[in-house]
Structures are given as structure tokens and as C-alpha cells.
């Protein structure tokens, strides 16, 4: 399922949303009529106008609209691909991978230390004189 999430985000990015960074622009309005006027002004100043409005749908509610400009559809797809549940899942995966990475680093450090210890022991053993079985170092050749 996570690979589907990545594919959905990649597809949305390939559509060409407005480059970031993004922030929040707040336009204070006194009432619904002023909000409608502000949205009307935003639509009228959109160039090029694509003849469609792009809304985000969250269980029948509209948490956002991305307007009616040339990047509006791509922006809507990008926002939809990065919904809160998706981001939570990606963060959980990232946390899991970070924990796994830390565990593997610890294991690698242990194995490196173990290897270095064994290599030192091997090198010391190689430096010892070789004793041939059955030979008498005292010169007594069995007499």
C-alpha cells in the first residue's frame, strides 16, 4: 500500500504543481458576501483562465480550492495526494526505517569490532613460529 502512496504523490508531482515553498495566505473578510467578493476577484485575476474550478473533497466537505488557473488541477492533485492520512503513513514508515537504520548501524559497529578483534588475533597467531609435529627442538633426534 505504501508504494501506491508514493506512486500517487509522484504522479501528482509530474503534473507540475506550483513550485514551492508554499505558505498560507490569509485574507480577512467580514462576512460571506465579502468572501464571495474576494474569491470573485481571485478568479477574475487568474491568467490564463482554464474554465474549470478545482476543489478538494474530504468526505463531502471542501477543505480547499486551488482555483481556475493553469496549475490549479496539478495543485489539487498534489494536495489530494498528500492528505493527512497519507502523510501520517509516510511519517510512520520513515520512523520505522530510521529505527531500522539505527539498529543496523549498531549491529554494524558490533560486527566491525568483532572483526577487528578476530583479525588482530589472527595476525598475532600468524606471527608465531611454526612448530612441526614430531620434531624435537632440543636436538635429541630420538637417540
Description:
The protein has 143 residues and is mainly alpha-helical. It has two domains: 2-82, no CATH class; 83-125. Helices cover 56% and strands 3% of the residues. The protein has helices spanning 2-14, 32-44, 72-81, 84-127, and strands spanning 54-55, 65-67. Strands 1-2 form a two-stranded antiparallel sheet. Helix 1 (2-14) runs antiparallel to helix 3. The protein is rod-shaped, with a radius of gyration of 34 Å. The N and C termini lie far apart (83 Å).
Secondary-structure element string: HHEEHH
Shape: rod-shaped
Largest sheet: 2 strands, antiparallel
Mind telling me the C-alpha Rg? 34 Å
Number of strands: 2
Secondary-structure content class: mainly alpha
- What is the end-to-end distance? 83 Å
Going across the biggest sheet, name each strand in turn. Answer: 1-2
- Any low-confidence stretches, pLDDT <50, length ≥5? none
Strand content: under 5%
Number of helices, counting only DSSP H or I runs of 4 residues or more: 4
Amino acid at each position: 500500500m505504501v508504494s501506491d502512496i508514493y506512486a500517487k504523490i509522484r504522479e501528482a508531482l509530474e503534473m507540475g504543481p506550483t513550485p514551492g515553498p508554499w505558505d498560507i495566505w490569509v485574507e480577512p473578510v467580514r462576512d460571506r458576501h465579502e468572501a464571495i467578493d474576494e474569491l470573485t476577484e481571485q478568479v477574475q485575476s487568474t491568467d490564463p483562465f482554464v474554465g474549470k474550478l478545482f476543489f478538494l473533497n474530504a468526505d463531502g466537505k471542501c477543505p480547499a480550492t486551488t482555483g481556475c488557473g493553469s496549475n490549479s488541477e496539478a495543485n489539487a492533485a498534489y494536495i489530494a495526494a498528500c492528505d493527512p492520512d497519507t502523510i501520517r503513513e509516510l511519517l510512520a514508515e520513515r520512523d520505522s526505517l530510521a529505527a531500522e537504520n539505527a539498529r543496523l548501524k549498531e549491529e554494524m559497529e558490533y560486527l566491525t569490532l568483532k572483526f577487528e578483534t578476530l583479525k588482530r588475533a589472527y595476525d598475532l597467531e600468524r606471527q608465531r613460529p611454526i612448530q612441526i609435529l614430531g620434531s624435537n627442538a632440543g636436538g635429541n633426534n630420538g637417540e
